[in-house]
Design a protein that fits this description.
Number of domains: 1
Structural class: alpha+beta
Helix content: 40-55%
Largest sheet: 6 strands, mixed
Distance between the termini: 57 Å
Number of helices: 10
Length: about 240
C-alpha cells in the first residue's frame, strides 16, 4: 500500500491541488462552525476535512469519515481508496455505522463538484443525519435525502441544463435546484456563519446520448420518467393498503 501511495503522489493532478493557505484559514474553519453548534462536532469536522484535503491534494482519490453527530467521535474512516472518485464501504465501516441515526458522513470531491445523486441516495439508504462534501477548491456542501432518486432522472436534468449553460458544475447545481422542488432532497453550500445544519460512486459524466437530444426532447423524457415514478409509488401504496387490510 505504501508503494501505491508513493506512486499516487508522483504524478500530481494540478486541477485537484488544494490551496493550503485557505484550508488553514479562519474563513475555512468557520464553515464547520456553521454546520454544527456543538463545539466537539465542529472541531472534529474541520480537523478531518483538513486531513482529507491535504492527504488527497493533487489526486482524484477520495477519503471519507463517519462521525457521531452528537459528540464528534470518529466512528469509521476510509483513507486508502485505490479507485478514483469512489468510496468502498468495508465490513468494519458497515458494522460501525449500522443501526445509528446520528451519523454525519463526510467525504471529499477532488473535482470540486456538488453532491452526486449517489451521495443523496447513500444518505437515504444509510439513514445518515447529514452528508457533507468537502471540495478541493474549498467549497463545502451539506445535503440530506428522504427518498431515492434514479440516476436516469438525474442524468436527464443535468443534460438539459448542460445544453443551456455549457458548464458541468453549473448544470449540476441547476439540476439539483430544480429537483429539490419535486423530490424530498435538500442541499446547500456552507458559507461561514451565514448558514442559520457498499460503493458510493461520485464520478459523473453526462451520457453522450442525452447530449444529442434537444431541450424539448429532454423535457419530454423527464416528464415520462416522472410519470413512471409516480405510477410506481401509486402501486406501492396500493400494495401497502392491501397488506394492511
Amino acid at each position: 500500500m505504501d508503494e501505491y501511495l508513493e506512486l499516487q503522489r508522483y504524478g500530481r493532478d494540478k486541477t485537484t491541488l488544494i490551496d493550503n493557505g485557505y484550508i488553514l484559514s479562519g474563513a475555512f474553519r468557520k464553515k464547520f462552525d456553521a454546520i454544527s453548534t456543538n463545539i466537539d462536532v465542529s472541531r472534529t469536522l474541520y480537523s478531518k476535512a483538513k486531513e482529507m484535503l491535504m492527504h488527497r491534494s493533487g489526486t482524484k482519490y477520495e477519503d471519507m469519515y463517519w462521525i457521531d453527530g452528537d459528540c464528534g467521535k470518529v466512528l469509521a474512516k476510509e483513507t486508502n481508496a485505490i479507485e478514483e472518485e469512489q468510496i468502498l464501504y468495508s465490513n468494519s465501516v458497515q458494522c460501525a455505522i449500522s443501526g445509528r441515526e446520528n451519523v454525519i458522513a463526510m467525504h471529499t470531491h477532488p473535482c470540486s463538484m456538488p453532491p452526486s445523486i449517489a451521495d443523496f441516495n447513500s444518505v437515504y439508504e444509510h439513514n445518515y443525519m447529514l452528508g457533507i462534501v468537502v471540495c478541493h477548491n474549498g467549497k463545502v456542501f451539506c445535503y440530506k435525502s428522504s427518498e431515492t432518486v434514479t440516476q436516469t432522472m438525474y442524468n436527464l436534468y443535468v443534460a438539459d441544463y448542460y445544453q443551456l449553460l455549457h458548464d458541468e458544475y453549473e448544470a449540476q447545481i441547476a439540476a439539483l435546484n430544480e429537483m429539490m422542488k419535486t423530490y424530498d432532497i435538500a442541499y446547500w453550500e456552507v458559507e461561514g456563519m451565514d448558514r442559520i445544519v457498499y460503493v458510493q460512486e461520485d464520478h459523473f459524466e453526462v451520457p453522450e446520448e442525452l447530449l444529442r437530444m434537444s431541450h424539448e426532447e429532454l423535457r419530454a423524457k423527464i416528464a415520462e420518467e416522472r410519470r413512471k415514478e409516480l405510477e410506481r409509488k401509486r402501486r406501492q401504496l396500493d400494495l401497502l393498503e392491501k397488506t394492511l387490510d
